[in-house]
Description:
The complex is a heterodimer.
Chain A: E1 45-46, E2 65-69, H1 85-95, E3 100-105, E4 110-115, E5 123-124, E6 130-134, H2 149-158, H3 171-175, H4 190-195, E7 214-217, E8 220-224, H5 232-235, E9 265-271, E10 275-280, E11 298-302, H6 307-316, E12 324-326, H7 332-341, E13 346-359, H8 367-376, H9 379-385, E14 394-395, H10 424-434, E15 440-446, H11 450-465, E16 469-475, H12 480-484, E17 493-499, H13 509-512, H14 532-542, H15 549-564, E18 568-578, E19 583-584, E20 588-589, E21 594-595, E22 601-602
Parallel strand pairs in A: 1-4, 2-11, 2-12, 15-16
Antiparallel strand pairs in A: 3-4, 5-6, 6-8, 7-8, 9-10, 10-11, 13-17, 13-18, 14-18, 19-22, 20-21
Chain B: H1 3-9, H2 30-39, H3 42-59, H4 61-68, H5 77-80, H6 112-147, H7 151-165, H8 168-183, H9 187-204, H10 208-221, H11 225-232, H12 237-245, H13 250-273, H14 284-291, H15 299-327
Helix pairs in contact in B: 2-15, 3-6, 3-15, 4-6, 6-7, 6-9, 6-10, 6-13, 6-15, 7-10, 8-9, 11-12, 13-14, 13-15, 14-15
Amino acid sequence: xxxxxxxxxxxxxxxxxxxxxxxxxxxxxxxxxxxxxxxxxxxxxxxxxxxxxxxxxxxxxxxxxxxxxxxxxxxxxxxxxxxxxxxxxxxxxxxxxxxxxxxxxxxxxxxxxxxxxxxxxxxxxxxxxxxxxxxxxxxxxxxxxxxxxxxxxxxxxxxxxxxxxxxxxxxxxxxxxxxxxxxxxxxxxxxxxxxxxxxxxxxxxxxxxxxxxxxxxxxxxxxxxxxxxxxxxxxxxxxxxxxxxxxxxxxxxxxxxxxxxxxxxxxxxxxxxxxxxxxxxxxxxxxxxxxxxxxxxxxxxxxxxxxxxxxxxxxxxxxxxxxxxxxxxxxxxxxxxxxxxxxxxxxxxxxxxxxxxxxxxxxxxxxxxxxxxxxxxxxxxxxxxxxxxxxxxxxxxxxxxxxxxxxxxxxxxxxxxxxxxxxxxxxxxxxxxxxxxxxxxxxxxxxxxxxxxxxxxxxxxxxxxxxxxxxxxxxxxxxxxxxxxxxxxxxxxxxxxxxxxxxxxxxxxxxxxxxxxxxxxxxxxxxxxxxxxxxxxxxxxxxxxxxxxxxxxxxxxxxxxxxxxxxxxxxxxxxxxxxxxxxxxxxxxxxxxxxxxxxxxxx
Amino acid sequence: xxxxxxxxxxxxxxxxxxxxxxxxxxxxxxxxxxxxxxxxxxxxxxxxxxxxxxxxxxxxxxxxxxxxxxxxxxxxxxxxxxxxxxxxxxxxxxxxxxxxxxxxxxxxxxxxxxxxxxxxxxxxxxxxxxxxxxxxxxxxxxxxxxxxxxxxxxxxxxxxxxxxxxxxxxxxxxxxxxxxxxxxxxxxxxxxxxxxxxxxxxxxxxxxxxxxxxxxxxxxxxxxxxxxxxxxxxxxxxxxxxxxxxxxxxxxxxxxxxxxxxxxxxxxxxxxxxxxxxxxxxxxxxxxxxxxxxxxxxxxxxxxxxxxxxxxxxxxxxxxxxxxxxxxxxxxx
Lengths: 603, 333
């Protein structure tokens, strides 16, 4: 999942040593940020036997409306297109049920993959090319009609229409049978296929209902793959795998105005970009759902709110504000006040995202120079100048895979680089060895963003102290995304981030570091990393058994950095958000980097 | 002068002097009279003192920084801010310290006093140049338009109307990305270009009012005998414009200059606040932009640049009013 929200979430990870991160503080003899919540690993666990109903905590008061405020607005709430962290958490948590889901385990502070509509986490065939999910009985839509395996199949077919229903996840086109050829149920004539972008008559494209990659057999959903996809059970938790009644989908782009609910809440009203009101869905059966409960009467989402205003409201914690919360990252001034006045109303946690400075392999060819950058980059100064709270909204990072990813291997490369050490002398020595003293680094910054400018100033200082020539290239808030993903951009260092789609390297390396994507427009491989042995290793890992795969990705992470020094880890993203005192069950879902709406209630 | 001209112009303005006439009736120029009135206006003198103080601050910003032992944009976030990104010395968490009289900036640790001094410098530099340029352009075009009957006047009036229709903020915001596109790979050039562009924008949007005013004055003046006499004597046009007409227009020019200077300072801060002003150098508008989210915890951060703008603009406005009063023989306070 790309870091698509502009304001990215924030938090704290127990596994990391944070004392150093808090250095420079404590002028008054106290270090209020010194204690960190013990967070868990992000959803590495699975439990195929979990069953409903989920117990409602004893301090929960039945009823009431939980108001959720945010500065952002979800781009779309169509289940097929739900690939943003905010829309994903709202839809999966409250409205749509998929084949599998995550449930937050209070004891371990971790999210566990459990069945949702399916009776288990899916059965995979011997050759790894066929997955079978059996649906539970008695699943109904909000209008009382039965949700069938046919509807799930239709929902999956719908997800192949990536040109009509844009921005959704696209693993199905890579892994499913005929994934590159099947264009979804809407383009069912040649004339309509020809209208799609990049139409190629020889590619054998087809559309319509007639697709045998997914089929329904009674109450079973059977998925046929083109290549093994050992982590399909994780992917099956996306709303792409939720039932969508074909009869209600006359106009695919309008379906988002009222997706048919199978979860505990249904749409009452939705104004895109402004508000979403969810009310109880009386057709939802708690006995079939091990991951959600229905304690509050309603959820009232208000989008595009002013940050300062919403923070002040929640911070005040008076009257209606007591049942309000936000999933936006807290700003430093508010963080300090709430930490002092009402620490219980501050929720911190991990987010499965890593920020990276990404040297272009075709322009910075010398590995030693790339290592030198990792010593020259002024980690602490850059974080602080850009308004991050070290240890709260950002964590020093080592491995590329963020903490909590299954099979993650913790390593330091270059040796001794703990993700926050700046050592200009080491950088100078490496540059000298490489014969590249005064190497010019060029990167984009947003000229109209004060934080970005302040960060750029610190980076120029840091790089110049380490013997580089620093040339920041101006961009603007509006154009930075296009500029960064421009293949011919006049820079050699890109900045970006990547978030897990599920907690394993399978949603990382094949997505961003595969040689076939290098040097392509749009920069799907942001470092243009293309090495034959790395690609061969990745293909091998995809063929392994499902239980060996996560560890293999962990090892691959370490191998790739040690052999090629592909990325400079600029820190793990972390979450810190605030809530009113009456909202209970607010925990950070480490898999999504969002609050888990499915277990939220009013006290 | 014909009878009709007398009727149109009315009787001559009565010559009023604040001082009683004495036996000595030495001739005094209108300029001299105005200056005398201005000097006797206490409010005007206080405001002039304040403006002078700001000018001195702007001119001697580096020296003042050395005097206070502060340095501009030299903060180190690692050593100067704590784990909440708040400054480790001075307000808001600690008492006043001479190390940083106005405190340090959260996040970056830059010194705010130095930022303030240099902000005054940017403000006055941009506003002064822009106002001088727009005054010169306005006066020249107004003179030409007023004196050239026929198509010259029509063309310039059309240009004035055209520029008056252009939305100032929209153009300013639209030009910023164009500059970035042009000089994106050369940071020093980009900073200079953004400064020059700001001055140009403020200049080309500031001359129209004065040009209209001057044009109107010239139209009424050009029918007077001394101009006609100069014309009949064969004086070249530029000489008529600059030697005969211009000296009679000093009053409106000085008044317009003194009133548009504070407006330009405010406009500069507004643009900086909107993120399309100067970059790479301190500016009050930028400080206000950064400070607003910290206001609850750290009000001084926001107050310092606001007080700077308010005091300077207020003083300049009062001074401008006083100058107008001094030059206008019909008004009394």
